[in-house]
Amino acid sequence: MRNAETSVVDSRWFRRYHRPVDDTPRTRLICFPHAGGAAGGYAALARRLAPRLDVYAVQYPGRHDRRHETPEHSLTALAARIAERLLEGTRGPYALFGHSMGALVAYETARVLARHGAPAPARLILSGRGAPTTTPDPHDRLDGDDAILAAVRRLGGTGAAVLDNPELLALALPVLRADYAALADYRWTAEPMLSTPLSIFAGADDPLVPQRAAAAWADLTSATSETLMFPGGHFYLGDQLDTVAEAIADLLPSLPVGPRGR
């Protein structure tokens, strides 16, 4: 990746919720939101991981201050756009973390970076999602707004304050439609394996991700992999934030960083 004065230069795409208090080089953790989610969902995790890691969260088009942009309807196109920004602006050791849809976007972003010969992430942490296959996940093929909203309520990803408020729901629905359309259209395609270590996180009671589906990610890397189960359902992160933060910090303890972050 090209050298840059800052670690991630495009603030439209990458949000930093806790700026380090000094210039000590730190591993960068780049976080990818779930379907319907936004970068702000990782603000609390960024606080928990500071100052050990320098955390950025991706802000997808179509949400919050990017609400006037058209949401991306293709998961692989979204990953390519994110990878392009990382190729332009990231240097030094970094890792990727994605939850639910974000796990797929993080994985596909890593594949785009590999195609370009960029330095691989030190680790890919994939949460709340089973390994992709050549056939669509039936949970992603939802017919219409009612089905989408029922799924969101069941999983708990969007609060009742949004779902029960017509004005807020009108803002959220275009993003949810686009994200679920991207998931429904996504097909995994075979290409050279990643050489990045994988860590798979999942909730023990997640109705969408049985442990065998989570463990199947191991087949998509030539490096090591491990599966960590946490108490809770699909959005176990909210209740297990401190535990998850410690697990992430343990996975990325002391990556080698030179005096200029190279």
Topology:
Layout lengths: L13 E2 L12 E5 L10 H7 L4 E5 L16 H15 L4 E6 L1 H15 L8 E4 L17 H11 L4 H4 L2 H20 L12 E6 L7 H5 L9 E6 L10 H11 L11
Protein name: Alpha/beta fold hydrolase
Organism: Streptomyces doudnae
Keywords: Hydrolase
Would you write up a description of this structure?
Strands 1-3-2-4-5-6-7 form a 7-stranded mixed beta sheet, sandwiched between helices. Residues 1-6 and 255-262 have low confidence and may be disordered. The chain has 8 helices and 7 strands. Helix content is 34%, strand content 13%. The chain is an alpha/beta fold and 262 residues long. Belongs to the thioesterase family.
The gist of it:
With 262 residues, the chain is an alpha/beta fold. The chain contains eight helices and seven strands; from the N terminus they run ββαβαβαβαααβαβα. The model is unreliable at 1-6 and 255-262 (pLDDT under 50).
Which terms summarize this structure?
262 residues; alpha/beta; seven-stranded mixed β-sheet; 8 helices; 7 strands; 13% strand; disordered N terminus; disordered C terminus
Task: Tell me the number of strands.
Answer: 7
Provide the structure class.
Answer: alpha/beta
* Helix content bin: 25-40%
Major sheet details = 7 strands, mixed
Ranges where pLDDT stays below 50 over 5 or more residues in a row are 1-6, 255-262
Give the overall form: globular
Mean pLDDT: 89
Helix-strand string: EEHEHEHEHHHEHEH
- Strands of the widest sheet, in order across it, are 1-3-2-4-5-6-7
Output the radius of gyration. 17 Å
Distance between the termini: 10 Å
Strand content: 5-15%
Distinct helical segment count: 8
